[in-house]
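Memo to structure team: turn this sequence into structure tokens by end of day. - J.P.
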Amino acid sequence: MTPPPARRRRTGAKGSTPAHNLPRRGTVRRAQAITTYGIGSLIAVDQESFVVSGLDEAEQSWSVHESPRIHERRLARLLDVNYFRLPPASDDNSRDGLRVRRFPLMHSCPECTELQRHRDFNPPAGRSVCSTCEVDLVPSRFVIACEAGHLGEFPYWQWVHRSTDRGASTTGQCGGKLKLRTSGRTSSLRSILVSCTCGQAPEVSMEGSFRRNALKDLGLTCRGPRPWLGTSVPAQECGLPVRTLQRGSSAVWQPVLKSALSIPPWSDGRADPLAEHWDALRKREDDRKRVEDYLDGAFAGRCPVPLDEVMALLAAEREEDPDGEGGPTFDHRYHALRNKEYERLRSGNDESEHSHKEQFVCETPLGDPSVLGPLGVTGPMLVKKLREVRALKAFTRLADPDSTTESKEMPLSNSPLPWLPAMEVRGEGVFLRLDEDCLGTWEKATAVAARIERMRSAHQRVLEQRAGDPNRVVPSPATPRMVLLHTLAHVLINEWSLNAGYPAASLRERLYATDDMAGVLIYTATSDSAGSLGGLVAQGEPDLLDRAIRSAVHRAEWCSSDPLCVESEASGTGGTNLAACHACVMLPETSCEHNNILLDRALLVGTPEEPHVGFFANVLEE
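Reply from structure team:
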């Protein structure tokens, strides 16, 4: 990771130090570059703080000259890019690295207690120390952000002078210097004291600065700062309310990740050389001769993909996008993407001969799947080879349940780029479906519908609070089959983490729960030692799967928080869970697609008053 160089005199408009001469400081794993320390996030290195730069092809953007490209056509088309790149994994001899900029700029000195911009301390080159006291500077603990994704410095000057003349407080022309000290009496905000040497305002504490309307009461609104894009990109007046946040708060940055499985006909890598030509090919997809002429011109008559395969790939695209290029929405395309995955997981590809480049191998188990019939489970499949691509689409700020508006996705660059950062995971998994007849009968039960309606209403209220505008509210995905499959996936992951030796954080769920889908894929979420070793696939054999489901259901029958847990009228964020807590069905956040909401183990095992509300109630009666 490479922060910008120390201040220097430029020799020209585009003068900059070569990438490999920038100082290197700190390291992050590739996966962290899209999940924890992605573009626009804050990262602490030693005693300094930085914001990760954007992808703009300008000074101090990412350097990815040596980072491999990743191809996943279905996801690339969904996100409107040509390809993906692995985040840089640099070493001492590499030119690559994540670029960062110093943020926040406001620092304080523990000795002289001055609070000012970093450059005003006149630190020596390459160091962050007070030139007078020779002690390490402390970055501001506080930043401000708005729900549109902007990030700015905390307005200390306005906070100190809020009781004086409004003109002085907004212009900052009082002639004094800010001071910051701690009284040491407590660890609360009351002990953090800010003052100004002008003498026009009393010393004030930071207490109250986190109130939702604290900065609004000072007449402050967002001015649209985007420090991750640098000073060359001007701020855009935003006008939304701003809130004070701790620099290390999780609300400062949340990634927007999208993923797709590599499935035939895209999973053998044959289409990768055509990645940058698909837009042109799609315009000619109905005319075989035009496609052939284009390929001859683009590859000088040596196209690496046979024409018949190109036409088959174009036909596969049309199946996922039946309404044409301009018609379907993002949600429509994402549903189509999931639907194709579901179809492929159901049918498998064990009848074909696999080449060594095939990245998707899904086969029927050797055992008799009829043993799962009494459980209402059908169609188990062993996914022996699996590749998933996870891309960072954008990021949000303040995406919490108490937000008054829907968080806006902030793009990763100021101008469109042909690629996005992504990670690929190679592993294995087990896919299973619920019997449609059993599921249909269970879904019609009045008690089931009543429990789901309580969850759906609570979730819909949360969505309405976030959206603010009724026209922007999206419907809650809570349905009986969705909550049932979601909770079943959680208890199976917990079961396999206890009995099959897998850490729960190394397993991940992928739900297929709509009117025409009722399945769940549990797969390895990492490619390390807990990845593709065959242990998870072995759990998909019918006999072992039968025992695992029965054991998981019996384990879910009792929670250490009962009877409070099972009798809960509402739990979780905004009441979006019922009988679910960290002692029974909740998982690490990296393993869950829905952030541990829309869970109810009563739909698996029933309740003392309504035992038959559980889909697997017959298992408990045996």
